[in-house]
Amino acid sequence: MTFFKKLLTLLLLVFPLLSFAMEDPWLILEKSAKASQQLNYEGVFHSQSSSESNSTHVIHANIDNEEYCLLKMLDGAPNEVFCSGDMVYVTSQDGLLIKKRKNQFLFPSVLPSDIRHLKKSYQLSFGEKKRVADRMAQHIELKAKDNFRFNYHIWIDDKNLLPLKLIVTNNKNQTVEQSTFTTIAFREVINKDIFEKNINLSKIYISKNKFVENYVSNKFWNLKDLPSGFKEVDLISRRVNGLNLLDYQIIFSDGLAYVSLFIRPITRGTEPKEGSVAIGPTNISARYQDGYQIMSVGMVPPETVNTISGAIEF
Amino acid sequence: MNEKISSLFDSEINNKDVDTLLSKKSKMAGVRSSMSDYQLISDVLKKKTIFPKGNLTDKIMTAIDKEPTQMGGFVKANSSNTAVMSFEILPVLASLAVLIVIASTAFNIEVNSTSTNQFLAKEDIPQEIINAHHAATANNMNYFIQVGDSAK
Lengths: 314, 152
Fold this sequence. Notes:
The structure holds 2 protein chains of 2 kinds. By secondary structure, chain A is of the alpha+beta class. Chain A has helices spanning 3-22, 27-38, 118-121, 193-196, 302-310, and strands spanning 41-49, 53-63, 66-73, 80-84, 87-92, 95-100, 122-132, 135-144, 151-157, 163-169, 175-186, 213-214, 222-223, 231-239, 246-253, 258-265, 273-279, 282-289, 292-298, 312-313.
């Protein structure tokens, strides 16, 4: 073998390794987000926040490029959530509630499809591999670049990149919330019948809930100086019960953290509130302006909800 | 006489009476004193800056000292004397009353102002707000399920 042939062989061997090493590490999150939409799996995961813990049985499938999921609470009331594409059906003791999924990312689908936005707010690093639900998983840390968000630790399956474990920590490294699979099995095919036995997909359901959501055409407010990385992802309006008034919910996100900003008209006999308070891991900030009670709510640091409630002006 | 002095400061006096009053002022100390008192009342009512020639407190105290004092029982007072004293104290008391009204207006605390905003407490947070937030954003199914409660 000539020298040039040896060199060529060597380059052919080394080049794929080099290209792998130079691949954008953030791409692994994008692939992980796709895995959570495309894989067929069944398992049980355990979720815990500061005040509550519960276990959920999940079946997820991608059938003809349509995403289906069935989640059943194993603790407390036997409530169920069924997802079919963008539609979400919640069955509980109170009956059936139908919603259109817009920002809803139920575990393990916690990562956004477009991860470019995350780069502005988080610093990515790889941790050690460990076993989660009897599978090897790679630890990925998304460390907040500022004090406006918490840190996210995600363990993704070493083979198919599905998120198996999520821990959210504050800047004191205390756990705010966590979800982790205890058992999981992957399948080639999951039959559609499993989902259809719970809900008749051919039937048209009419939502009877009082919170009729409308979509706002005219905004009478301006937003300035939002926390870095947060942008408006949704706007919902609801009619105030018994009054010809609307209240508004603006949702902001940096890709992982979410904050709702409520703009509610003050009704007669109601005293406006100001200040901030925490309910478990959720922080709330309230402000009064020009006849409206402004409240921002989110599982984010207090600085974030305070900044967002102060960002609105009429 | 006092009516004329009062009319003078109310700009309601006729020219003839002005001459009479001014000639008496130069001759009678009582008229000068009355005019001074009426001038003070007029300035207070018109909210003019008052620079009393003498010490106002001294004048008030002097006027009070001149008031007859009842020390138990009823003493028959000199009717003419009492009338003079009452007349002299009247403008001072009127001035005091006006000053009290002005001061109370200046320092009045608005009673019917808009009620101050209350500080936020956990109990002030409507559950429907928490539910609406989780319904749109939570990745924990338990929070998501609670949406059904808010729809009741």
